[in-house]
Design goal:
Radius of gyration: 17 Å
Strand order of the largest sheet: 5-4-3-7
Distance between the termini: 34 Å
Order of helices and strands: HHHEEEEEEE
Shape: elongated
Helix content: 10-25%
Strand content: 15-25%
Number of helices: 3
């Protein structure tokens, strides 16, 4: 790999909504693996341009979870995959019983009511604190 290292792994895990083979039942072995990430990075950033099934698995997952979503960062620097309408000041939080974090938008600055913007993916999301989207 051409100097990209594992610092891009959280980025790829976010782009694939962390639907990687290591996190799921063996029946989902068709999902990309973190072992596929170096080949994918070499394909994207390298000189060889070789494309193999491991690259295709990563691309398929990104295309599956990417449409209708936008990359954003939180105020504490975490990368988030949220709905296209996500904007600065929105809050990413987890509700008890929900499978995924949600992006909420305050209805007005001084009112404790929120609109649900949509589902989000936040790698290593804590389920006890809301996180503001970076302005």
């Amino acid at each position: 790999m051409t100097g990209h290292g594992q610092n891009l792994y959280p980025f790829l895990e976010t782009l694939t909504a962390n639907y990687i083979a290591e996190r799921h039942h063996p029946a989902y072995a068709w999902r990309p693996s973190t072992k596929d990430f170096p080949r994918f990075l070499d394909f994207v950033f390298g000189d060889n341009g070789l494309r193999d099934p491991s690259v295709d698995r990563v691309i398929k997952n990104i295309l599956e979870f990417g449409p209708g979503r936008a990359l954003c960062t939180t105020t504490d620097g975490k990368l988030c995959l949220g709905p296209v309408g996500t904007r600065p000041g929105d809050i990413v939080t987890v509700f008890l019983g929900c499978d995924s974090p949600l992006v909420l938008r305050p209805t007005t600055p001084d009112c404790p009511q929120y609109w649900v913007v949509g589902e989000a993916f936040l790698l290593e999301c804590s389920d006890d604190l809301p996180i503001k989207v970076h302005e």
